[in-house]
């Protein structure tokens, strides 16, 4: 099932999700290093990683919601997509809370309690990412109908290109 939000032939949502996931993971790592070393610079990097991750999460959510709306109702894909989106919303809220709690702290230090909150958010993010993989790899959401090992480039837009069958020679 091809998704609505595309850029140069590729679904936008998978392109965007790597940013919040990577930035939130990096924030947890930098906050752990700050907890171990006491070097506040690592806490500041973690704080700004969360800041950028929140912006990325909103952009990814908008693209994901647009795609989810186009998934046929009463399908397993619709239900899995809903759980995927709700878990990602929970992750975003958790990191937003952690971010808000750190704004007024000296050096934006997380401390032990906020760090545990971030770890919980990261565990939920892994579960949400697994569901996203289920959507793509098992339920074929976001997959072009003409996808095949031999498919032409997604940059190629020719009206004579019809549906492809795997193994059919290219023109």
Can you describe what's shown?
The chain has 171 residues and is mainly alpha-helical. It has one domain (11-138). The chain is built from 4 helices and 2 strands. The protein has helices spanning 12-37, 40-69, 76-102, 111-138; strands at residues 6-7, 10-11. Strands 1-2 form a two-stranded antiparallel sheet. A hairpin with a 2-residue loop joins β1 (6-7) and β2.
Secondary structure layout:
Layout: E1 6-7, E2 10-11, H1 12-37, H2 40-69, H3 76-102, H4 111-138
Ends apart, CA distance between termini: 25 Å
Order of helices and strands: EEHHHH
How would you state the average pLDDT, rounded? 90
So what's the oligomer here? single chain
Taken as a percent bin, the fraction of beta residues is under 5%
Unreliable spans? 158-171
Question: What's the alpha carbon Rg, rounded to whole Å?
Answer: 20 Å
Strand arrangement, major sheet: 1-2
- Supply the number of structural domains: 1
What is the 3D form? elongated
Q: Can you count the beta strands?
A: 2
Total helices: the number is 4
Q: Which sheet architecture does the biggest sheet show?
A: 2 strands, antiparallel
Structural classification: mainly alpha
Q: Helical content, roughly?
A: 55-70%
């Amino acid at each position: 099932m091809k998704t609505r939000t595309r850029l140069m032939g590729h679904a936008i949502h998978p392109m965007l999700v790597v940013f919040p996931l990577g930035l939130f993971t990096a924030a947890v790592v930098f906050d752990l290093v700050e907890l171990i070393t006491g070097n506040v610079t690592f806490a500041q990097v973690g704080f700004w990683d969360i800041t950028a991750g929140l912006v990325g999460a909103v952009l990814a959510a908008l693209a994901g919601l647009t795609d989810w709306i186009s998934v046929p109702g009463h399908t397993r894909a619709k239900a899995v997509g809903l759980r995927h989106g709700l878990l990602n919303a929970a992750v975003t809220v958790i990191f937003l809370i952690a971010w808000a709690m750190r704004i007024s702290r000296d050096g934006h230090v997380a401390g032990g309690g906020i760090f545990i909150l971030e770890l919980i958010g990261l565990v939920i993010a892994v579960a949400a990412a697994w569901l996203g993989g289920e959507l793509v790899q098992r339920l074929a959401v976001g997959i072009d109908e003409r996808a095949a090992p031999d498919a032409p480039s997604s940059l190629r837009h020719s009206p004579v290109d019809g549906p492809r069958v795997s193994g059919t020679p290219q023109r």
